[in-house]
Amino acid sequence: MHVANPMKSFPSPNSDDRPEGAIVDTVVIHATVLESIEDVIRHFEATDSRVSAHYTIGRDGTIVTHVPEDRRAWHAGQSRMKDGRTQVNDFSIGIELVNRNDGVDPFPASQIHALRRLLKSIMSRHAIQFIVPHYACADPPGRKSDPAGFDESWIRDLLDENTGHPSGTR
After folding, report:
1. Annotated active-site positions, please?
2. Is 60 exceeded by the pLDDT of residue 170?
């Protein structure tokens, strides 16, 4: 029987408290534009970067955590959901996938499997209603393109199972 390695933590100072009463119901999927998980760790550890996410998943499926889920990571920037809510960082968990975001760099199967495992884990702790690519909540529309080349069908069934409703990934 294979036992997964525990998740390593590389804390980022780039986070703060969520607003009082905020309920996490959204996951935002990003592409790092950086080449390695080590590059992401260094970037998120730098206070002057003013950016972070809750998790990063490497090409080999390694998952690291940067910000506890009960805190607000700084990943979505100026943002708006299709339902009109703004400040998406307030009610979301951010997951970065190591990828150049050029639409050509592939998302390896090991990375997608790790993403699915992580999403299932997050969904066991939060009533997730939406899983969105960053480009779908960036405001104004067109401000972000990540994760370019990501096929939402890789994860769509997870939300269907969690909510019993049609997928909220669109």
Report:
1. 96
2. no
